[in-house]
Structures are given as structure tokens and as C-alpha cells.
Amino acid sequence: MFPLDFSPICGIVVNERLQQPRSQHNLRKVGYPGIHAEAVPGARLSVIGSTNMEKRCTKCGKMKNLAEFGKDTSRRDGLRNWCRECIRCYAASQAGRAAFRRFQASDAGKAMHCRANKRHRDKNPKQGVCHHALSGAIAAGKVIRPTVCSACGQSNGVIHGHHADYNSPYDVVWLCALCHKHLHIAKRSER
């Protein structure tokens, strides 16, 4: 058996006798020559707290800082195998978009979408009450949804009711989907 020293503070097994990892793992400690590190099954890198840890991206093959990898709790190191830049490039590609559409159509994708919607409703209860009141008023005929966007004047597609204030559910600005999206992007950039 190898003389291994487990450090519970950082969650890393250090093999000093061999001066190299027992297996080809894509983590290494930088700045300590002669000491190599391997991840322990079940250890999470968020526990490590060290800023000098690196991981090899399996897509581009480059050693990158741990901050450049997204979280993935199903992996033993707690991080994705691809760096954020590679994931961004893949998601923008035609193959990535097709894979995302297939996932959205699957049962797992639909369940994930439902969970995300539930988290949003739980986080913003006033918004849900306001939308429910407006849709009830539209169904009852008390409020009439216009067919033209009040910002650009286009009449194609669905017209959304934008609430500037959720305390007044019937005070809405009627916008097409594109104008509504641009309005929210502008509000987000102001914050």
C-alpha cells in the first residue's frame, strides 16, 4: 500500500513517495513542486477553497483554473469536465442547439422545465398573483388584449402584457415578444 496522507481540510490525497499521481487525473496542485494531488471520491472541490487549483478541460485539453468550470454535483470533483468557454461554443453550434432541443423534448427536460418554473413561482409569488388576475380579467372580458404592439406597432405574434408594477395587476403595457424581451434586457443592464 502507498503511504498516503489524507488532508481533511482540503479533501485531497497527496502521494509524496511516488512524486506523481497514481492515476492520470485531470487535477493538479500548482506551486508545490514534487507533490501531486488526486481527488478523493466524494470530496467536493468547493471545500478546498484554494485559488491555485487547476483542472484539464477534456474538450480543449488546456489546464485551466477551477473558476472556469461550472458546477456538476454528479461528478466526484463537483465540477463539469468542459470549461465554460467550450460549453459556450458547443451550445452556440448547430449540434449543441439540436442536442438542447432533443433534451427539452425528453421527459427529463420537461421535468427540469417544470422544476425551474416552480422555483420561479415560489420566488416571485406577487408576480404570479398579478398574472393570474390579469389572465382572469382577459378571460372574463373585463380587459381586452390588443392585437398591436404599443412600442413598434407590429401585429404579428402574441402580444404580451408587461407589468411595470406588480401592485397594480391591470396597469400593463402591451408589447410584442421581441419588444418585451428588449425591455427586460434594458432593465437588467440598468441594475
Can you characterise this structure?
The protein is of the alpha+beta class and 191 residues long. It folds into two domains: 5-92, Wheat Germ Agglutinin (Isolectin 2), domain 1 (2-Layer Sandwich); 126-191. Helix content is 38%, strand content 19%. The protein contains six helices and ten strands, in the order E-E-E-E-H-E-E-E-E-H-H-H-H-E-E-H. It has helices spanning 45-48, 84-92, 94-105, 107-123, 125-140, 177-190, and strands spanning 5-7, 12-14, 27-29, 37-39, 53-56, 63-65, 69-71, 79-83, 159-163, 172-176. A three-stranded antiparallel sheet has the order 1-2-4, with no helix packed on it. A three-stranded antiparallel sheet has the order 3-5-6, with no helix packed on it. The protein has a two-stranded antiparallel ribbon with strand order 7-8.
